[in-house]
Amino acid sequence: MTHYTEDDLILYYYGEGRRRGDPSTSSGSPQALWRDDVEHHLETCAACAKAYRALAETLQLVPVIDVPEREESYGLDVWQRIRSRLPEPVVPWWHGWFGWKRLSLAGAAVAIVIGAFVAGRMWPPRAPASPVVAVDPNEAGARVRLAATSDHLDRSERVLLDLMNAEGQTVDLTDQQAWSADLIDSNRLYRDAAARAGDELVANVLDELERSLLEIVHGPSMPKAAELDEVRARVDLAALLFKVRILADELHEREIAPTQPRKIT
Amino acid sequence: MQMDAIEAAAVLARARQGDSDAFRVLVERHSRNVFRLAFRMTGNEQDAEDVVQESFLRAYRQLGRFESRANFGTWLYRIVVNCSVDLMRARQARQAQARIESLDELDVIPTPAEGPGPERLAQSAEIGARVADAMSGLSPLERAAFTLRHYEGRSIDEISRMLGLRTSATKHSVFRAVRKLRIALAVLK
Ligand SMILES: [Zn+2]
Description:
Chain A is mainly α and 265 residues long. Chain A has helices at residues 6-13, 35-44, 46-61, 74-82, 98-122, 139-165, 174-196, 200-218, 225-237, 240-256, and one strand spanning 64-65. Helix content of chain A is 63%, strand content 1%. The structure holds zinc ion (ZN). The site of zinc ion has 7 residues of chain A, from helix 3.
């Protein structure tokens, strides 16, 4: 008799899986968890029934979090708190022409960033530690940097997602490694440009991102399950996926209405 | 507030064009759900209020990027989860203190037959402490997936859409969270 795993029983406890005969089940994958089968098995298999009871008892112990009540009028309160902070509706500056120019814009950004990088390398500031001017005086330059950096973050998010989503007995990360290696190069340029613009938030996230990308590049191409789990756990613990997403969203917003870089609190 | 699907779509379309009155309807409609999720994610009332405001502000600024075919609630929840993780990490130190205080607000599921006796209450405080401890040991993805599944009753498919993960990765986050909680609670049995 094939028994159900703890994972199956967790899904069953939470009402996941489908019933045979349910019209939406026709496209069920071969590994679909059929609730009818689990139910029948639990009635006939003492071992699985015992495991399920233990699981259910524990999960029922997990206390209900008592959420403080909010009045019917709460939505209006929230609205009144935020209404004065809503930005004026803006027509995106790239509206109408940005789509097809985005690629050439990214190219221009790389050129500008590389230019800044090379200039910084070749002519380091001779005066010691005069405070860096925090805001790029050139708004177009700032927009180009933001657009290119947010594209870079979107691409990095896809690599991280590939890593988090990889499954199967043997996982092949060769493509993700090549991709990460490319991203590391541009990551350094964008981080450097962000640091020059006094954009600590961006520079810090890119710094963390570089560490994860390096780990992917230098890790095994065909990681064992345990190795893959370790890398994933580190990416997860650093909340890197969330940080990259939030920052990408924020930069997309700033592209439309660039403001001073947000300082880290 | 009840809205049928056509009205909801119309409100959303107006909000996307920068109509702040239409956005107000969305805020009024979703605020309580957003607060509930934010509280469950952060475990703290003040943080939850901050997340509510920040989430709606972000949602307003990003409405132009919302795909109208998607579900607005799912999209908004995704923003709430992101904001919660962001805020929790920014305030980890304060969070540690707040979680100890919020233990008083935790309660076990009441048995229908009788109210909890003193022994039961003492045990529930210990369970609360252990769960809070285990929850703080979850990674951001584990905590988000577990909160959405266990407390919010969202399906694995929905949670995957909110977290932008494949269902297998979402399931594994839930499995890991449950395992950690089982270990934390095993000594009580
Ligand atoms: Zn069995």
